[in-house]
Design a protein that fits this description.
mainly alpha; Arc Repressor Mutant, subunit A; Tetracycline Repressor, domain 2; globular
């Protein structure tokens, strides 16, 4: 019973108790990750901290992979919630002196990672041994939600025709065929293929800087890391948007 309940259908007493137990188990697992790191996650330790047996825990999560997937999904959703809240409360139209909404999104992404380094490592650090996320599962849907937020903010104000005429490097025939999957309405909003490399480039630039900071590789910058990050995001956004023609004409 880890799936979503139909909207408006009240839960039974048994379902409410089940949901409360699942929430408590996930909170205990989060505490263990925060204390010992993702790699040290142990179902036995989680069960012991709750005064229950491992067999009882398996009643709620049939395997370690099920628990890890729930934790990864929960972390992705928390990160996406933070980014979505940041852009929802940002100015709709950036004026002189305002920070572009894409930069607001990137900064909230960074801040969540800095504030929750263990959870960030869970979803973006070294893969846990013997764990493989289920294809098209809840964690995959959570990642797509985050991608959709950044896609919307990066390309805000541009038409599909403008994105289709974006100035990108010549793509090999194989890559062009691969990018056709992103033309469907279900994949990242049906982006034109030239926009996909731009989105991936922006994501890699932003995410790479955050990873370096969370893992301590930019500590030499000291208390100025937020300033450096904003400067980098502003520059990246300007460079990427210059590749998109103003009138949709091919460049």
């Amino acid at each position: 019973m880890n799936g979503d309940e139909p909207a408006g259908v009240p839960l039974t007493l048994r379902e409410r108790r089940w949901a409360a137990a699942v929430k408590e188990i996930l909170a205990a697992a989060d505490d263990q990750i925060a204390e010992n790191g993702p790699a040290a996650l142990s179902l036995r330790a989680v069960a012991r901290s709750l005064g229950m047996t491992v067999q009882a825990l398996y009643h709620y999560f049939p395997s370690r992979d099920d628990l890890v997937t729930a934790l990864v999904t929960k972390a992705h959703e928390a990160l996406a919630d933070a980014v979505q809240h940041a852009v929802d409360t940002a100015p709709q139209d950036a004026g002189v002196g305002d920070v572009p909404r894409m930069v607001v999104a990137a900064e909230s992404y960074r801040q969540w990672a800095v504030d929750h380094p263990e959870l960030f490592q869970l979803i973006y650090g070294a893969p846990l041994r013997h764990y493989s996320a289920p294809a098209e599962g809840s964690s995959t849907r959570a990642v797509r939600r985050m991608s959709g937020i950044f896609k919307n903010e990066l390309f805000r104000g541009f038409t599909p025709e403008q994105l289709a005429a974006a100035d990108t490097a010549a793509l090999s025939p194989g890559l062009k065929r691969h990018l056709e999957q992103f033309l469907s309405p279900d994949a990242l909003g049906g982006m034109p293929s030239p926009a996909v490399p731009i989105l991936i480039s922006a994501w890699g630039h932003m995410h790479g800087l955050v990873v370096l900071e969370v893992f301590g590789h930019t500590s030499f910058i000291g208390p100025h890391q937020a300033e450096i990050f904003r400067m980098s995001m502003m520059s990246m956004l300007q460079d990427l948007r210059r590749r998109i023609p103003a009138d949709g004409a091919a460049t």
